[in-house]
Amino acid sequence: MKTVLITGGTGLIGRQLANQLRAKGYRVTLLSRTPKAHAEFTTYGWNHDTGLLDPKAIAEADYIIHLAGANLGEKRWTPKRQQEIVDSRVRSGELLYHALKTEPHHVKAFISASAIGYYGAQTTETIFTETDPPATDFLGTTCRKWEQVGEQIATLGIRTVLLRTGVVLAPNEGALAKLRIPVALGIGSALGSGNQYVPWIHHDDICGMYLKALEDATMHGAYNAVAPTHTTNYELTKTLAHLLHKPFWFPRVPAFALRLLLGNMANMLLEGSRVSCQKISDAGYHFQFPQLETALRDLVTKK
Ligand SMILES: NC(=O)c1ccc[n+]([C@@H]2O[C@H](COP(=O)([O-])OP(=O)(O)OC[C@H]3O[C@@H](n4cnc5c(N)ncnc54)[C@H](OP(=O)(O)O)[C@@H]3O)[C@@H](O)[C@H]2O)c1
């Protein structure tokens, strides 16, 4: 039985992925900042501030999936929070790199989250592909540093895949849960111009892509993990309102109000371009939910 070690495996993606891996016959272990709290899988402790990493976690692993990272939408992006967003991804990744470099192990592949923020918070008609350069804004530079750790791990001879993930649409948490509140209250409307693209991916597809990246030894490097349908914020909110049988209002939430409320985090919601999934499709990934309406219909009917 192969062992998959997941960092940040207690989060939105990690919990479903861990269950799917177990159902497929893998042994799943987790690396968490609070190991005692999670009994369902063997959980080891780590802390990138102190450099703690239980060596058993690496010694037992055949594969590592690196999902750990402070949540982008949880708190206002103060300078301290921005540092936490970077460190929780980069310093934790460096801890893994150091362990893989210095300790005996048999890890065959390292699969890491990255994000479409790599291409920057900007609204254009450009369809970004994996060969485009990183943006120079906060998310662009964060994603670059995050991916550089994966590239360092690749220099150790470990196959490395980086999934530049779009907005994950999941049943009761994450972005969809936040979007659902005003819509369910009957006050749903687009944010800012509403013309910004929201590259999205259904929860089942992001987990499917991690499984594929783990099992397909031909996959290397960065892949965009987004659905093939290009969707604006206006279309996303309107489709959700339609499916929930709620009104969709024309006066949009003004950009200045969001900026006032959220500070520079608002850019993440107010800007967005199109992102191509051609590379992962060419690698043989078949989407379970390529269309927005079908994806949302599936999610809003789940408990
Ligand atoms: N969900 C999305 O829409 C989306 C989109 C693009 C990219 N991604 C990326 O995909 C990865 C997984 O996403 P997710 O939605 O599952 O994330 P999540 O629900 O926010 O969970 C991430 C996990 O990271 C760990 N973590 C949180 N704060 C941390 C900190 N300060 N230092 C170290 N570890 C910390 C936590 O595990 P412990 O408490 O057990 O340590 C947490 O369960 C993240 O890196 C995220 O940025 C997600």
Report on the architecture of this protein:
With 303 residues, the chain is of the alpha/beta class. The chain has a domain at 3-168 and 202-226: NAD(P)-binding Rossmann-like Domain (Rossmann fold, 3-Layer(aba) Sandwich). The chain is 40% helix and 20% strand. It has helices spanning 12-23, 55-60, 79-102, 138-154, 174-184, 203-215, 233-243, 255-262, 266-270, 278-282, 292-300; strands at residues 3-7, 27-32, 42-47, 52-53, 63-66, 109-115, 127-128, 159-165, 167-169, 188-191, 200-202, 221-225, 248-253, 274-275. The protein has an eight-stranded mixed sheet with strand order 4-3-2-1-5-6-8-12, sandwiched between helices. Strand 3 and strand 4 form a beta hairpin. Helix 1 packs across helix 6 (203-215) and helix 3 runs parallel beside helix 4 (138-154). The longest helix is centred in the N-terminal third of the chain and has 24 residues, at 79-102. It is globular, with a radius of gyration of 19 Å. The model has no long low-confidence stretch (mean pLDDT 94). The chain binds NADP nicotinamide-adenine-dinucleotide phosphate (NAP). The site of NADP nicotinamide-adenine-dinucleotide phosphate has 25 residues, from helix 1, helix 3, strand 6, strand 9 and helix 5.
